[in-house]
Amino acid sequence: MQIVLWLLPLVVFGLAAYLGLGKLGEMPQHAVHDRPKGRIPDGPVDEAFLAEARIPVAAHGYDRGQVDGVLRRIADGEGVEPGAVLFDVVRRGYDMQVVDDLLDRPQPAAPGAEERLFRPDSPPAWSDKE
Q: Can you give the pLDDT at residue 115?
């Protein structure tokens, strides 16, 4: 009986060392994301994008109405600074990471924006030349 009491801790420590070496299975090399992915089309946020997009919902995320309003403004051509937009965090809101990635995408130009661009063939406004 005494031999069993001395061998049992040795066996337990041996198994612990064997587990510590990772011989009985390891964690995956890359993290597994189990969140819903939604359907996020490629390209800028425009009317076609809004028709196809299905932004995933998280347990806690950005307010859906606020995000939908900002995405609608972007699709309509209004420029929105990504850092200037703040959303309320609510239960069952849009996934924050996905929305932040959408705001970082190129935005369509506002109507008439081409007219305001600098044209190299025209003289600067402070010049006397016409």
A: 47
CA atoms within 13 A on the CB side of 87: 24
Q: What is the CA radius of gyration of the chain?
A: 28
Q: Report yes or no: 56 and 95 within 8 Å, Cβ to Cβ.
A: yes
List the structure tokens of 18.
């064997």
Q: Supply 69's token pair.
A: 């309003």
Answer whether 71's CB lies under 8 Å from 48's CB: no
CA-CA-CA-CA dihedral for 94, 97, 101, 104, to nearest 10: 100
Euclidean distance between CA atoms 5 and 29, whole angstroms: 39
pLDDT grade, residue 125 (50/70/90)?
A: low
Is pLDDT above 90 for 62?
Answer: yes
Nearest to 58 by CA among 105, 97, 100, 85: 97
**By the 8 A CB rule, do 108 and 75 touch?**
yes
Q: Which of 30, 100, 90, 83 is nearest to 64 (CA)?
A: 90
DSSP assignment, residue 122?
Answer: S
